[in-house]
Amino acid sequence: MTSDTPARRRARVFSRRRGAPSRARRRLGAAVRMLAALVLAGGVYTAFTPGAFAEDNVQLSAVAREGKALYDTSCISCHGRDGQGVEDRGPSLIGVGSASVEFQVGTGRMPMTRQEAQAEQKPPQFNDAQTEQLGQYIQELGGGPELPDGPLVANLESDPDALARGGELFRVNCTSCHGFGGGGGALSSGKFAPSLSDATAEELYAAMLTGPQNMPVFGDNQLTPEQKKQIITYISVQLQDDKDPGGLFNLGRYGPSTEGMAIFLVGITLLVFTSLWIAGKS
Predict the structure, then answer these.
(1) What are the chain's domains?
(2) 26 is known to lie in a ligand binding site
(3) In this predicted model, what pLDDT tens digit does every residue of 121-156 receive, in sequence order?
């Protein structure tokens, strides 16, 4: 057996030091691997989500070119070149889709006259053709939700249960803000849910699809296109055709609660005066 001399111990220590990587080298290697992973993830994301960014040299259709001319004269000051947005003026329009443009511009909410808590509905500044051109430009610029083709109201002859199902969906998803009768209601910070009394089927579908103002987005995984059409059918047929859900009288179109309160107050008042009259006579 050979003795463990100091020279041999020093040789073993030197060999271990030379074979094991230093702490600095290990950290540098980890940083390089992390950087490579981030570059790879970013490349995959860019490759599979091209619609999230505006293309500089996108080839526009004839309708979209007309929309770009309107955009450059009426929208660019707030939403910036190619819809990229301007800080403290207007958000980016990349990915909002033609449905959002048709709702906001078609109802006169855009262009806004001034910055306020909520864009209010007013007479639109663009006609239907111009609104479609603006929507097509934004759609081709960055993609996003679009209104479907075909009728947006269910056919009650082929689907007689659509009205009842639409009413149930409306009560579950919409009444907390828009009220039982679609009359609208106040929200926080000066915002409000508008009345649905004069909303068109296209406006209703676009609102559910894009979630304007404080309204949530009802994607197809939450409300299918068929369910959206059923809600629109209920609003169009049951709430907009002079049919008051409260019953006999139209008291704000908020439903039976307002009529019940009115009857209660009137009844109590009559009973009080009748009691006073009887007491005075006796």
Answers:
(1) 62-142 (1.10.760.10), 162-243 (1.10.760.10)
(2) no
(3) 999 999 999 999 999 999 999 999 999 999 999 999
